[in-house]
Each structure stands twice: as C-alpha cells, then as structure tokens.
Write the structure tokens for this entry.
Amino acid sequence: MAVKNTQPISQELVLAALRTVQDPELHKDLVSLNMIRDLKIDGDLVSFIIVLTTPACPLRDTIEQEARQAVTALPGVGVVDIKVDANVPTDGRLSAMLNIPVRNSIAIASGKGGVGKSTVAVNLAVALAQSGARVGLLDADIYGPNVPTMMGLSSPPTLHNKRMVPPERYGVKVISIGFLVPPGQPLIWRGPMLHSVIRQFIGDVEWGELDYLVIDLPPGTGDAQLSLSQSLPLSGGVIVTLPQQVSIDDARRGLEMFRSLDVPVLGVVENMSYLELPDGSRMDIFGTGGGKRLAEESGVPFIGAIPMDPSVPESGDKGNPIIISHPDSVAAQAMLAMAKDIAAKVSVAAYKE
Ligand SMILES: Nc1ncnc2c1ncn2[C@@H]1O[C@H](COP(=O)(O)OP(=O)(O)OP(=O)(O)O)[C@@H](O)[C@H]1O
Ligand SMILES: [Mg+2]
C-alpha cells in the first residue's frame, strides 16, 4: 500500500523542500531570501512564484529547475507550476540620499579614453532593459557625449513641470548633454558648472522608477567622477580596459579612484580582447590577458572579455547597439553575459548591506 502518497502535501513540507535550494550567488536558500511567493496547493498541484533579485539573473533556469526538482520529489506532488518574477533590491544609500526612485546606479569607467566605455554602457543598459528591468542611461561624458548617437536618439528631452523628461529608445531612458548643445561645439566646463550639470542630470530629470541607472563616465579620473560620486551614492563601478599594459595602468587608476570614493568595484571588463579571423583562429591585437591580471592583482572579479568586431563601431554609429543589430555575434553574446553578471553582482552587493 502506498501509504506515503496518501499523506497530504502541506505548505510546510513544500517550504522545507525549497529550503534545500540555494541561490548560488547569494548563498542562502530561496525561503530565507523571501523569494517564494503565492504558494498554493490544490490536490497534487503545487504552484508558486520565485521572485529573483534581477530579471537579468544568469542562474534563472538553474534556480527554477532545482526548485522544481525539490518539490517534485515530495510524496504526493503531481504537477509543479512555477512562475519566475523579479524584484530588484534597492541600494539603501541611494534612496536615503536622493529623493528619486532609482534602485541602483552602475558607473562605467576606464581611466583611458577610447577603450569602449560608452559601447559597454549602452549595451549594458539595453541588455538590462531587454531582460525586463527599468533602466536609465546617464551620459556623464560632458566633454564628448557619444551616447545619443550610439542610441540613435537626437530629439532633446521635453519639459514637464520644469523637469526634463528623457527620450527613450530600446526601453532605456537617456539623458546626455549631447541633446542640449549643437553637435561639434566644443564643451568647456569649469568645475562648479560641471558639478551643477551632473547634479541636474540626476535631480532634475523625470527618471521615474528605475531598477538600474547606468552611467557612462568620461575618460580619466577627474572632476566628473568626483562630481558624480558626490551627487549620488554609486552602487558599483565597472572598469573597462583593453588587454594591453598602458590601458591596464590607466584602468588601475580608475579602479583606485572608485575605491578612494568608497564605490564598490563590481569588476573588470576586458574589451577588444581579440579578433576572430575567418579561419576561426584568434589574433590578440592589444596583447592578451591584461584584464584578468588587473582583476586578480586588485582583488576584484573579472567580469569577462568582449572580442573585437567590426559590427560594433558600425552599429554604434547607426544607433543600433550590437546586441540589437547582431544579437547572435560573439561580441553581442559576450555583452549579454556581461550584463547578467553585472546585474547579479549588484544584487549581491545590495544584499550585503
Ligand atoms: N568590441 C569592440 N570591437 C570593435 N570596436 C569597438 C569595440 N568596442 C568599442 N569599439 C569602438 O571603439 C571606439 C571607442 O569606443 P567607445 O566610444 O565606446 O569608447 P570610450 O571608452 O567610451 O571612449 P571615450 O573615452 O572617448 O569616451 C568606438 O569607435 C567603438 O565603436
Ligand atoms: Mg565614451
């Protein structure tokens, strides 16, 4: 007689099973993390929602699969119906200091110019938006604003109650000084003006509720970085570098700048890592392994390597980021993986507080 199967399934038993499933990044079980919602039992049907900490969760499928296995293994369970949702945790310091509903802010920096900060920032923002997150992109490069072109936007923000309403593309709200000055005009800023522009871009813009505000910094380790970190608490900084030594040296300065401003460094992205040749072999144009070395030496995570791809500049100039124009390319796939990894790291940082 199958005595086991006559025992009714209880909420307690299901929750106990789900306590055996860990979020691999937060290192706690789904129940302790309060990720299980709406648990219902109807005969042999068990249904619940798993609320992840980011819609761009890289381990979404693994977590769902393990939860399903754990509950299916319970005696008497027939069908397990799981929905997956996300609620991005709020960086407490951000909401405390700013009166705007931005949950997390991620700054992209390098030290050196031309290494792909803006390209990374744009693709990161679009990838997060594609995953379902609410995303803003702040072009803090007030000397050479490239974000409008890369996002294919030219219309300036509109005004509503004296606040700027950012134009939107690919699900991302965008603000840039490039919208406000004629193209080609040199942009010369004195320190206080610069500070005031950056503050306005944060405080006087109708961002609405955002899960992530991605910030594209100008090259260098100067005033803009300082102004930015004084204007809002950054949830994390990402360092972009080429594999070559001179870029690494500058990137290290960028990394130390974040540290001196108490901004958690989420990790290092190595851009233009290699060029794939038609025969499938790789050519290391800018050397090899520098990004990983920098990460190891500085004790921060290595987020990943993005190859060179001629479609990147082409699609950037046309205003279609590569993850939109060539989503299957190796470079786009690397950017998507990077975005998921960064989102996961922001969640982990938010849980640490
Ligand atoms: N992976 C890549 N493959 C090929 N070209 C790339 C790649 N990443 C960026 N580029 C190109 O390199 C140039 C510099 O990139 P980008 O403008 O993003 O760098 P940046 O660090 O923001 O520069 P700046 O310091 O001037 O703001 C652009 O023409 C861009 O299209
Ligand atoms: Mg740039």
Remarks:
- Residues 191 and 223 are 7 Å apart (CA to CA).
- The pocket of magnesium ion (ligand 2) is lined by residues 117-118, 141, 146, 216 (CB under 6 Å).
- The mean pLDDT is 91.
- The first helix runs from residue 3 to 6.
